[in-house]
Amino acid sequence: MLSWSAPQVPGLAIVAPPVRLHDTATGERIVVEPDEGQPARLYVCGITPYDATHLGHAATYVGYDLLNRAWRNAGHEVTYVQNVTDVDDPLLERAAKVKIDWVELAERETELFRQDMHALRVLPPADYIGAVESIPLVVEMIQDLEAVGAVYRVGEDVYYDVTADPAFGKESGYDRDTMLELFGERGGDPDTPGKRDPLDPVVWRGEREGEPSWPSPFGPGRPGWHIECAAIARRYLGAAFDVQAGGSDLIFPHHEMGAGHAQALTPGTPFAKVYSHSGMVGYDGEKMSKSRGNLVFVSALRNSDIDPMAIRLALLRHHVRSDWEWTDDQLFDAVDSLAQWRKAVALGAGAPAEPVVTEVLAALADDLDAPRALAAVDAWVAATLGTDGLADTSDPDAAVSIIAVVDSALGVAL
Fold first, then answer.
1. Which of 197, 207, 281, 369 has its CA 20 to 30 A from that of 37?
2. Which pLDDT does position 292 carry in this prediction?
3. What is the pLDDT of residues 83-99, one digit of tens each?
4. Cα separation of 79 and 76, whole Å?
5. Do residues 59 and 278 touch, judged by C-beta distance below 8 A?
6. pLDDT for 388
7. pLDDT value at position 61?
8. Does pLDDT of 310 surpass 90?
9. Domain span at residue 204?
């Protein structure tokens, strides 16, 4: 599947510090360095393309774009992989509801997502893989799981046995009651008769009338959601990689199950060194979601002549792991901030830039602390423009350095 084109990113004169991330599984901040001779490896779960990109999506992808950039500024190559769940129940249900072919709907919304990510200057994944094109990988992985006794059949469906991974539950840290509640709320089927455990997820859904299906050794059908990402990550990043990332609503069951699928094949080897999760974005007092209809779409903002850099700046005002509420005032404040930043760098000379560059890189290496990084730039702008007193233009080349670090580390083009 085609990704989107990459923005030009300036190089920096200094090397950024090693990156530390909060790990959901341990609750600790961990230095995440790639294995010797390997690039840094990142998997961020992608969209199910049945509607346009909303700001909750954008906050996640902009947030982990900071990780991609922080690693690169620390001197590492990065292999970034993302999936597109271009066949799944929500997509099929939406296509039937609006009377459009599901393939056409998936292609249309995926292309809109590409446009949104390009506009927001998110670095594209090296491998952008759809669920449909990953079916051979899924089939192969199910066969491997079958060989170790980790899957079983219930009628036409194939299920994964969660007890096959002794580490099951360690990624989320949830108790069983919480798991059962979330499993039922987030696409699972705990009440299906014949399962060994109510938490066992489907890895191959047998053919249903009116649904797309593909041939397999298990009969015609289509992949389960969790094994899609596990199979893609294993193929393109290896059996163990650096960071698995996504929204906090993916902690369970999606990331827990994906880790279990992989770890059942490599006992004792964690699927990812670190699990990092972005917070939820709310609007009108509720989590922003398609089911509630309280969405603010990136494309709608772009089409109303909002500079995408202002959208990105508004998102960066919040830590990637924070839950927060979107308001129009935040966007208007970002528009004003962006104008002030551009006014300051247009002067050429400004307050000393070196401390700002150092602080921005240090902040992003410290668990992707974008608000701290933005505060450093805000302070430089205030000093340069004399907002808090006499203007400081003591550094004749300040603007060059500020433009470079704001672009390279924060992804904001001035």
1. 369
2. 74
3. 999 999 999 999 999 99
4. 10
5. yes
6. 79
7. 98
8. yes
9. 20-282
How many of the other CB atoms lie within 10 Å of CB of 381?
21
Q: What is the mean pLDDT of the chain?
A: 96
12 CB contacts (<8 Å, ≥6 apart)?
Answer: 73, 357, 361, 404, 405, 408, 409
Greater confidence (124 vs 288) lies with 124
Q: Is residue 352 part of a domain?
A: yes
Specify the length of the chain in residues: 414
Cα separation, 242 vs 245, in Å, equals 10
CATH number at residue 334: 1.20.120.640
Q: Could you please report the per-residue DSSP string of 95-108?
A: HHHHT--HHHHHHH
Rounded Cα gap, residues 224 and 221, in angstroms? 10
Interior/surface letters 178-195, b for 16+ CB within 10 angstroms, e for the rest: ebeebbeeebbeeeeeeb
User: What are the C-alpha distances in Å from 403 to residues 181, 313, 350?
Assistant: 48, 14, 12
The total number of structural domains that make up the chain: 2
pLDDT score of 409: 98
